[in-house]
Design goal:
Elements: H1 13-29, H2 46-54, H3 57-62, H4 66-92, H5 100-104, H6 123-131, H7 133-136
Helix pairs in contact: 2-4
Length: 162
Amino acid sequence: MEMALLGKQGQGGSELRDEWEFIRRYMEEGPDAVPRPRLSTQLPSPIQAFSAQFEGLGRFFRKSSWLFKVALLLVWPAFVIVGIGHWLSLLLCWRPRWPKVIREAGMPGKPVPPVTTLSDYPPAIQDRLLANADRWQLKPGKRPEKKPRKPHTPKSKNSPPM
């Protein structure tokens, strides 16, 4: 599987949309169209690395039996090792650096890079892009609406069986 990561880790759809809107405005209208980004440290927080390991366990931990909780205590060293490994991999990542022609695009007096088309790629890459076209092609229509969830009602011990 091929993938590229861009930007920062998002905590929800609106945060990711805001990130892409920032990139879009910067690319289309130039650096004056976007607010100056806040400075942040280059070092990743260990919390980011460990939260990935534990974020799904909260729901199971609350509703699980004591046996599951004991098993989780026995396995937690593995989670710590995986978390440390994830944090080290985040430390070893480098920040992407855009090519000069892209960084200067949209600035006054600088050339606009040409639009890339399918024919710009070698035949082997063209075949791979076309084989996956259904994944990146825009789909007509709207997103299906979410169905409302039923409220959870706890069962009482005195209720008659059905």
